[in-house]
Structures are given as structure tokens and as C-alpha cells.
Amino acid sequence: MELEECINNRRSIRKKYLDKPVSKETIIKLIEAAQKAPSWKNSQVSRYYVINTQEYKEKILNCLAEFNKENIKNAPVIIVSAIEKGISGFNKEGEYASHLKEGFQFFDNGLQVENLCLKAYELGLGTLIMGIYDSEKIREILNIPENQEIVAVIGIRLY
Predict the structure, then answer these.
(1) Model confidence at 48, in pLDDT bands (50, 70, 90)?
(2) Are 68 and 50 in contact (CB under 8 A)?
(3) Under a CB-based contact definition with an 8 Å cutoff, are residues 133 and 127 in contact?
């Protein structure tokens, strides 16, 4: 599949997801594609938490806005994207090196999430990036350290 086709045809999938499994190998390909995105001094600030068991999917669904719960309630995989704070956009002394301050970390994460979504489309998967959620509940459920900030929750599904 050509890149232009992925860019032009990838969409956020808001219809009900089919509970068809997504293989571990496919999930690894998505994360690897994300990691290939450029980042500030190759800082690789993004961290990914893959949820693919029914127990944890239900817990994460309860952290989402009502309309998103309905959109992805049967998603076989949910990926939570987080950034490790204090790495991207800083110099060696830990001072801001960019006028964007902490914002560059989010920029780096956005590039990675876009790569993940384009790769998903190439592999015949649909995605929905969600930004309305209870981050503290998600942090507690997934045991995400305090030095990481949750940026997005992504539903993954087969077409």
C-alpha cells in the first residue's frame, strides 16, 4: 500500500468495533512503526500500554467519555499512549531548549501516534484516538508511574 493511500483513506472509526482478535505480532508492528517517528534528539519519550484482556478493557472503558465507551466497547485492543516527562525539549542541564517548553514532548508523541495509526490502516485495522478520559483512573488501573503523562487512548479494530 502506498503512503499517499494511507494518508488519504485512514479515518477515525467511530462505529461499533468487532471483537475479532489482533495478534501480538500485529501489535508489535504498530509499536515499532510508532517508534520510528522522529523525536527530539531521538529521546523516544512515548510509552505504550497495550490492553487486550477483557478484564482490563472493561476497566479502561469505564474511564472514557460515554460516547467513546460505546464507540469502542468491543475493541479487541486498546493502546494507551503516555509520555515520560522531562526528556524531550530539554537540554542536558534539564532546562527548556525550546520555546514550546514541555509541549515538544506532546509533539513527539503525536508523530508516533500518527505512525501507529497509519501502520494500522496499512495492516487493515481501524483506529480511534480519544482524548477525553479519566487519566488518574487509567494511571491507577495500569500502574503508570507519576513521571509519565497519559496523552491518548487508542481503540484498535479489524475491518
Answers:
(1) very high
(2) no
(3) no
Sheet containing strand 125-130, strands side by side: 46-51, 77-84, 148-158, 125-130
Q: How many C-alpha atoms does 97 have within 13 Å on its Cβ side? A: 13
Under the banding of pLDDT at 50, 70 and 90, the label for residue 8 is: confident
pLDDT digits (tens, 9 = 90+) for 80-119: 999 998 888 888 888 888 888 888 899 999 999 999 999 9
Helix ranges, the chain (H): 3-9, 24-35, 54-61, 66-72, 103-122, 135-142
Residues in the chain: 159
Instruction: Tell me whether residue 113 is exposed, middle or buried, using C-beta atoms within 10 angstroms of its C-beta: 0 to 12, 13 to 18, 19 or more.
Output: buried
Burial (CB count within 10 angstroms: exposed 0-12, middle 13-18, buried 19+), residue 44: middle
CATH classification code of 3-158: 3.40.109.10
Q: Is the pLDDT of residue 17 over 80?
A: no
Give this prediction's pTM.
0.91
